[in-house]
Amino acid sequence: MPITSTHYAYDGSGKVTSVEVEYTGRVLKVETYTDRRNHSDTLDYSDWRTTQCTRALVWLGTFGRPSVYTTEERELAPHEQFRWIDCTNIFVWRGSPEMVPVADVGPDSEPLMLVNFIAYESFLKAEAERLAREAAVRAEEERKEREKKEAARAKREAKDNALKAAAEALLASAPKKGTQVKVGDFVGTVFWTGATKYHGKWSARLGVKQGTRRDAPVVWCEVGEAVPV
């Protein structure tokens, strides 16, 4: 049996049914599988459901369209002569035919089809191996790129940590909180010390306040700019 398509339509006298038979002697495989399909009754919104699907692998012959997306007909290479036909029957009620595929190819079928089917399967195997090799190459390149970025990040972090440690080491010998210091012409008391990072640069800094009032003048400076008095 080939793929049998039953079309349903309506005219003035009621329901009209017509049957079309295609790919006789050319249905090599029929498969069922689960997929996500849109069951929207108008197709203008999403109604995705888990659907039991059916498809049939058929032989197109040696001449025809190499793709469903082109109207051009030409001689087909062996790997172009076979196509999966969707026979899931979701939209029969919208005018699509009800398709029933049955595999009907055996050892005594068209010899050219059987020979080209071997070539088709060899092509698919070679294509799968090629894609696997390309995927492996991409994965290796991505791994190397990740390692390169990780090494650069680790280097930046190590440099940053070293600069931070150097700034913190300066604080160990800096005037402590409560110490009176002079910064230029400004005299005050250290009320804050810390290692801070600004525009990517670490520095050991002091906060010096003149007096005890909340609104007393304050200056911020590097550790080396403050001289105890």
The largest beta-sheet arranges its strands as 12-11-10-9-13
How far the N terminus sits from the C terminus, by CA atoms, comes to 106 Å
Let me know the number of strands: 13
Outline the low-pLDDT stretches. none
Indicate the structural class. alpha+beta
Mean pLDDT comes to 92
Number of structural units classed as domains: 2
The H-and-E topology, N to C, reads as: EEEEEEEEHEEEEE
Cα-atom Rg, whole angstroms? 39 Å
The major sheet is characterized as: 5 strands, antiparallel
> How many helical stretches?
1
Beta-strand level of the residues, as a percent range? 35-45%
Helical percentage: 25-40%
Shape: elongated
What does this structure look like?
It contains one helix and 13 strands, in the order E-E-E-E-E-E-E-E-H-E-E-E-E-E. It is of the alpha+beta class. The chain folds into two domains: 107 residues, no CATH class; 91 residues, Thrombin, subunit H (Beta Barrel). The protein has a five-stranded antiparallel beta sheet with strand order 12-11-10-9-13. The longest helix is centred in the middle third of the chain and has 62 residues.
Describe, in short, the structure shown:
This protein is an alpha+beta fold.
Task: List the topology elements.
Layout: E1 3-11, E2 14-22, E3 27-38, E4 48-59, E5 63-64, E6 74-75, E7 82-86, E8 98-101, H1 111-172, E9 180-183, E10 186-198, E11 201-209, E12 218-222, E13 227-228
Antiparallel strand pairs: 1-2, 1-8, 3-4, 4-7, 5-6, 9-10, 9-13, 10-11, 11-12
